[in-house]
């Protein structure tokens, strides 16, 4: 790891000002993957701005919305009573997303901004990575790609977004609150991330120096059924091959409202709006679930290593819908 300067910020405005003034600076919160990437030579900031002492923690509920400070840890959010009662699939995603040790360090803001698990991005000895070195190509397209994306991908990048937590959050229409040099703004999470296109190195809409301060999460209506299903190669400390976050509100056997998102298969947390449209007003059952799966995994971008994910994604979503609907067969 090369040398860098370290600054501990005492208030939000100071952190934003210091960061904005230095194009090579980066914020430091939990650092659970950031420091690893610095040690590996993938990231090399000239200055780290420690924001862990800023007043950006805490969880509060009002008017059907949960407001979560960006420095709240994953473990704190998973332990919140309102999350357990009104957002159970978010709690499941948090608990499945990391070990207890990591959940006690990793922050909500940092989780949303975590970098991809793509092996080519994380290995500086691999020359071809458009996300790490724009214009060099994508080694994953022709290499081993079992963990890579089939939705939102292109020949320029097929890296997945690794967050479990972001999957139910994007399904819930969560909103990210930002503070930057130009003031404050709020961005829906579904508009926060950018698919790679021909600029894979630009992952979100953050301007340099902008800081996530909070996330607002609409609560599910009482009686809504939800589940988070994560399919992975092993049961502990592993990222998703495919995951599905599903919430259904039923009247009798008819689906009145559906919220669906996928992880492990998208270059961003993937909101399945087409699936929701198929499900809305349909009887909960295998025909509707299969149709929703087909609508979701439409026109996938596959390479030899990811072809299996097309069918796996469909089956995962069907199972998650069935589980959320209460085992309807």
Nutshell version of this structure?
The protein has 329 residues and is an alpha+beta fold.
Written account of the structure:
Strand 4 (59-62) and strand 5 (65-69) form a beta hairpin. The strands form three sheets. This protein has a five-stranded antiparallel β-sheet. A four-stranded antiparallel β-sheet has the order 9-10-11-12. A three-stranded parallel β-sheet has the order 1-3-2, with helices on one face. It contains 13 helices and twelve strands. 47% of the residues are buried. The mean pLDDT is 96. Among the domains are: 1-53, Uridine Diphospho-n-acetylenolpyruvylglucosamine Reductase, domain 2 (2-Layer Sandwich), CATH 3.30.43; 225-324, CO dehydrogenase flavoprotein, C-terminal domain (Enolase-like, domain 1, 2-Layer Sandwich), CATH 3.30.390. Helices cover 29% and strands 21% of the residues. The longest helix is centred in the last third of the chain and has 17 residues, at 308-324. Helix 11 packs antiparallel against helix 12 and helix 12 packs across helix 13 (308-324). The protein is of the alpha+beta class and 329 residues long. The radius of gyration is 20 Å and the shape is globular. The protein has helices spanning 12-21, 34-39, 74-78, 81-86, 88-97, 100-103, 108-112, 139-142, 166-171, 189-192, 273-279, 286-296, 308-324; strands at 5-8, 25-28, 47-50, 59-62, 65-69, 175-180, 183-188, 211-218, 225-231, 242-251, 254-263, 270-271.
């Amino acid at each position: 790891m090369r040398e860098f300067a370290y600054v501990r910020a005492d208030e939000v405005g100071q952190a934003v000002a210091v960061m904005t003034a230095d194009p090579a600076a980066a914020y430091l919160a939990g650092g659970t993957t950031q420091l690893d990437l610095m040690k590996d030579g993938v990231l090399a900031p000239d200055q780290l701005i420690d924001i862990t002492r800023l007043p950006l923690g805490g969880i509060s509920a009002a008017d059907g919305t949960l407001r979560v400070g960006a420095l709240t840890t994953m473990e704190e959010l998973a332990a919140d009573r309102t999350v357990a009662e009104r957002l159970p699939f978010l709690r499941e995603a948090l608990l499945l997303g990391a070990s207890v040790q990591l959940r006690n360090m990793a922050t909500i803001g940092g989780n949303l901004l975590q970098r991809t698990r793509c092996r080519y991005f994380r290995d500086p000895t691999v020359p071809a990575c458009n996300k790490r070195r724009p214009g060099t190509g994508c080694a994953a397209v022709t290499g081993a790609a079992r963990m890579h994306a089939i939705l939102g991908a292109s020949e320029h990048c097929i890296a997945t977004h690794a967050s479990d937590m972001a999957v139910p959050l994007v399904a819930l229409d969560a909103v990210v609150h930002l503070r930057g040099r130009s003031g404050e703004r709020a961005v829906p999470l579904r508009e926060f991330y950018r698919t790679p296109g021909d600029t894979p190195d630009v992952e979100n809409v953050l301007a340099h120096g902008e800081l996530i301060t909070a996330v607002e999460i609409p609560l599910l209506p009482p009686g809504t059924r939800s589940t988070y299903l994560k399919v992975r190669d092993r049961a502990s400390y592993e990222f998703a091959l495919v995951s599905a976050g599903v919430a259904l509100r039923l009247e009798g056997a008819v689906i009145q409202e559906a919220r669906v998102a996928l992880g492990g298969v998208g270059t961003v947390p993937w909101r399945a709006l087409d699936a929701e449209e198929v499900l809305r007003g349909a009887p909960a059952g295998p025909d509707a679930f299969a149709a929703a799966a087909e609508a979701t995994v439409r026109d996938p971008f596959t390479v030899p290593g990811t072809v299996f994910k097309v069918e796996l994604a469909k089956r995962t979503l069907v199972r998650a819908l069935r589980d959320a609907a209460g085992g309807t067969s």
